[in-house]
Every structure is written in C-alpha cells, then in structure tokens.
Design a protein that fits this description.
- The protein has about 280 residues and is an alpha/beta fold.
- Helix 1 packs across helix 2 and helix 1 packs across helix 4.
Length: about 280
C-alpha cells in the first residue's frame, strides 16, 4: 500500500463515482478500479459497497480507512510545513534524510507533487544516508528532518521525534537456497536454529531491540549476528541460512535469489527534527 493508492481511494470516496474520480486523477476508469481492488485485497476488506448500480457507498471499513488515510496525508503535510517554516524560511528548501535502501519518496510522490503546487517557494529533496550517519547529519544541519521507524534513544535529547502514522513493521528476507524456501505456510518461528542478521553500531541499539522483540512475539528466538553493512548481510543470507528484517519501503523486495515473508504487525513512522535552538 502506498500514498498513491490512498489518493485514489480518497478521491473516489469524495466523488462516489469511479468515472468522475478517474477524470480528476487523470487516469482511466479501469485503472482506478484496478487500484482500488488491489488496495482492498491488500487490506483484506471491502472499502466500497457496489451492490447497487450507480449508488456507490463506503462500507464501515471504508469509513474507517477514509479517516485514517486523510490523517496520514494531513499529518505528513503538516510535518513538512512545520519544518519549512521553522528551519528554512530563508533557504526555501527542506532536505529529508532517509536510510539507504528505503524508497520512501516513491510512496509519497503524489503528496509531494500536490504540496509543491501549493508551496512552490519551498522545495523538498531526499538524501540517503547509512543508518549510522542519519542522526549525526541531522544534528549537524546537513539535513532538516529524518523519516525514521523507531522512537529515538535518550541520548538524542537535542532532537525531537513526532509520530506520523503506522506502517507495516517489515518483511523477512531469506535466500532461495534456505532449507525453508519452499515450505508452505512459512512462519517466522520456523527460522529457529538459524541466525538473525542486523547492522552493528551503538546508534542502532533501539532498532535491534525492536527487531528482537518482534522475533520473540512470533516465536523466533535467534542468535543475533551483527554485520557492518547491508551487503555483508545479503552475502551471509545468500549462503543459505539466516534471515534479515527490512522495512516496508525498502528496495529489497525484488532481489534476485531471495524470498520475502511479509509480516502483519504495525509500527509508527516518526518524523525527527532538531528542537528549536538545538544543535
């Protein structure tokens, strides 16, 4: 699920007509219907009641998700506007830092386009950093905000984090050579006895704690092995044993030779910025 699908759903919910919504979105009606059907399949619920011809209505689930998606778009817009006004009134630019390998911009592209039309004087750009360098880059003012998947450790007292919205926790990456690769109804607990790989570094302590907690509540009690970078993790997993949890907007979904086990848990996405007057 991404912000583009949310936009399609919200416009359809606004017009209650697929043809009119498609015209406003500059796409074809079949393409819109396909996107809505894909969203419903991913969420596991029907968002619209189509039982009566020419009388489209939101289901109870549709009403709930309409409120959630509206809040999702509004909260991110407010976050960017806040940074633009507080940090960059003179430069007219907002630099958003994200972890290398995480493709957030693609999933909020529609929002960025709309926001840019309303605020042409402020440009938003994304920069990728190794995860260990994200917060130091923010503190040194190389970037203005960070999109982050964990609550900040106490040591970052000069930074402020604000919860935006919930996203899927992540997915489990493992090799096609893994003995579990062809197992039906595969669960995380099936990886017991195999190593669990994560990145090393003091800055990632809360990330590791969160990942291990996620493993434990799913019945997986792994031996943690720390690696210096993602390439080392991929190489280790590629040998045929072990796994790695990556976030939902990662680029790792399409790696040749690897498989993905999706998870259902939700975690909050945080916007991190400097406190007023902070260094």
């Amino acid at each position: 699920m991404n912000t583009l699908q949310m936009k399609y759903f919200l416009e359809t919910a606004k017009t209650m007509n697929f043809t009119r919504a498609a015209a406003k979105l500059y796409i074809t009606q079949p393409a819109l219907s396909l996107q809505i059907a894909s969203l419903e399949k991913e969420l596991g619920v029907k968002l619209f009641d189509r039982s009566r011809k020419n009388d489209l209505k939101l289901t109870k689930s549709g009403e709930i998700f309409k409120e959630l998606f509206e809040r999702h778009v509004a909260e991110f817009e407010q976050a960017v506007e806040k940074v633009a006004s507080e940090e960059n009134s003179s430069t007219g630019a907002v630099t958003v830092g994200v972890v290398e390998g995480v493709d957030i911009a693609k999933h909020i592209r529609d929002f960025l386009d709309e926001w840019g039309e309303r605020h042409p004087e402020v440009k938003v750009r994304f920069e990728n950093y190794p995860i260990q360098r994200l917060m130091p880059a923010l503190k040194s003012k190389k970037i203005d905000i960070v999109l982050w998947f964990e609550r900040l450790p106490v040591k970052y007292r000069r930074l402020y984090d604000e919860e935006l919205f919930n996203v899927c926790y992540g997915s489990v990456l493992f090799s096609e050579k893994n003995p579990l690769a062809n197992k039906e109804d595969l669960k995380l607990e099936d990886f017991n006895g195999q190593p669990f790989y994560m990145l090393e570094g003091d800055a990632l302590e809360t990330v590791r704690e969160s990942a291990l907690y996620h493993c434990h509540i799913n019945g997986y009690y792994p031996e943690l092995e720390l690696m210096p970078n993602h390439d080392s993790i991929l190489s280790a997993i590629g040998s045929g044993e072990g796994c790695f949890i990556f976030h939902p907007w990662s680029r790792y979904f399409d790696l040749k030779g690897y498989k993905v086990l999706k998870t259902k848990e939700k975690i909050p996405l945080f916007m991190v910025r400097r406190k007023s007057g902070g260094n």
